[in-house]
Amino acid sequence: MNVDTLSLSEVLRDSKIDEGLLAIAGKVQNKERITEEEGLLLFEKGELGFLGALANHIADRLHHGKVYFNRNFHIEPTNVCVFTCNFCSYSRLYKQRDDGWELTMEQMMDMVRKYDGQPITEVHIVGGVHPKMNLEFFCELIRNIRTHRPDLHIKGFTAVELDYMIRKAKLSIADGLIRLKEAGLQSLPGGGAEIFHPDVREVICADKVDAEGWLNIHELAHGLGMHTNATMLYGHIEKYEHRIDHMSRLRQSQDKTGGYNCFIPLKFRNKDNDMSNIPESTIIEDLRLYAISRIFMDNFRNLKAYWPMLGRQTAQLTLSFGVNDLDGTIDDTTKIYSMAGSEEQTPALSTEQLCDMIEAVGRIPVERDTLYNELKVYKTEVAHLH
Ligand code: SF4
Fold first, then answer.
1. Ligand 1 centre distance from Cα of residue 101 (Å)
2. Domain count, the chain
3. Residue 99, domain CATH
4. What confidence score (pLDDT) does residue 348 get?
5. Please, are residues 355 and 365 in contact by the beta-carbon 8 Å criterion?
6. Could you give the CA distance from residue 196 to residue 288 in angstroms, rounded to a whole number?
7. Which of 92, 151, 165, 307 has a 20 to 30 Å separation from 353 between CA atoms?
8. Percent of the chain topping pLDDT 90
9. What is the arithmetic mean of pLDDT over 290-308?
10. Domain contains 316
11. What's the CA gap between 319 and 3, in Å, rounded?
12. Which of 99, 90, 223, 108 is nearest to 160 (CA)?
């Protein structure tokens, strides 16, 4: 599946384009940052072809047609959770834990051992916030993985999980992060950010860590030399200005620390949750959002489309709208989005399938590690590169 977008020079020559939008295109050409007001204008008036032209231009300037993926698997220790986010299709309260799962140390280590001898580079650990799985338990898990397989990069625990487990251990956030780092934790994923603005957060996830807490945890982790990701859950009750507010806070945070590896917009899926009455965003809205993220988040080098959530075809389309990363092979080890209604009920892609998806839209597949070091360039010449 391929989408031909306009080039930036074609956009700049188009006399029918709104003046404000043309000024933004000029800024993109001159590598200048756009303002929050301009970001809002893109949401309000930017048509898909226009946004794609700008986003593609930036992505090609940064990555020269390369699209990254990694070889990873997930461990989801539990879906039992003390919180009750209304958009969540995945969690079960402690009193309903018989409907959920709580993996033992041995079960999790069996998952790690399953990949012995395979060229996997990363384990991604996230789950519900279980009242009884504490900081010590997770430090032990990390130490066990590290001992069993020292070459595996351990990325784990959203700021929501960390905030709870560290506060429960009666440590400062900094000291808790140091404990986890000493055990062998190397990076943090970007989950739990949802929408930072309190007007939205209050409605969709009132009881978990707020925007300031989330950003503080990430900035402290950066200060300890760990890299992290950032997400935004979009397409529910939030308005365009909430998206811009969210992206702006992340942009400022990245200006301070430079510690974010990538930005990952996550599409709200509406199956089996307390917000099922809200229709999901259209593919056009998804693509516009990716493109605007690429244009607005000028200090985030990498923009990821998480294919188990979008479905592989839409994820492939995003590659023409500024995305340069498709996450990993995953090997059917996550349930978060299949339980929320994603088309991907058993998400797993072989390296060959991922490469085919990327090459089919004229891009170069590159395997990376967690920190975006290039491990293997799968093809150096692709039929038609922008
Ligand atoms: S989104 Fe995360 S914190 Fe919220 S209920 Fe679900 S598992 Fe718990």
1. 14
2. 2
3. 3.20.20.70
4. 76
5. yes
6. 20
7. 151
8. 78
9. 95
10. yes
11. 9
12. 90
143 and 130 within one domain: yes
Pairing of strands 364-368, 374-377: antiparallel
Q: Compute the mean pLDDT over every residue in the chain, rounded to the nearest whole number.
A: 92
Pocket test for ligand 1, best of 85, 133, 335 (most atoms within 8 A of CB): 85
Q: Are residues 73 and 35 in the same domain?
A: no
Domain that holds residue 37: 8-62
Q: Is the pLDDT of residue 311 over 50?
A: yes
* Burial group, residue 367, by CB count within 10 angstroms (0-12, 13-18, 19+): buried
CA 149 / ligand 1 centre spacing (Å): 29
User: Rounded to whole angstroms, how far apart are CA atoms 76 and 347?
Assistant: 14
> Do 338 and 197 belong to one domain?
yes
Q: Which two tokens stand for residue 156?
A: 């784990």
Residue 1 clears pLDDT 60, i.e. is over it: no
Tokens read off for 88: 């969540």
Which has the closest alpha carbon to 190: 223, 151, 160?
160
Q: What is the pLDDT of residues 38-56, one digit of tens each?
A: 999 999 999 999 999 999 9
pLDDT of residue 240 exceeding 50, the answer is yes
Q: Whose CA is nearest to atom 3 of ligand 1?
A: 83
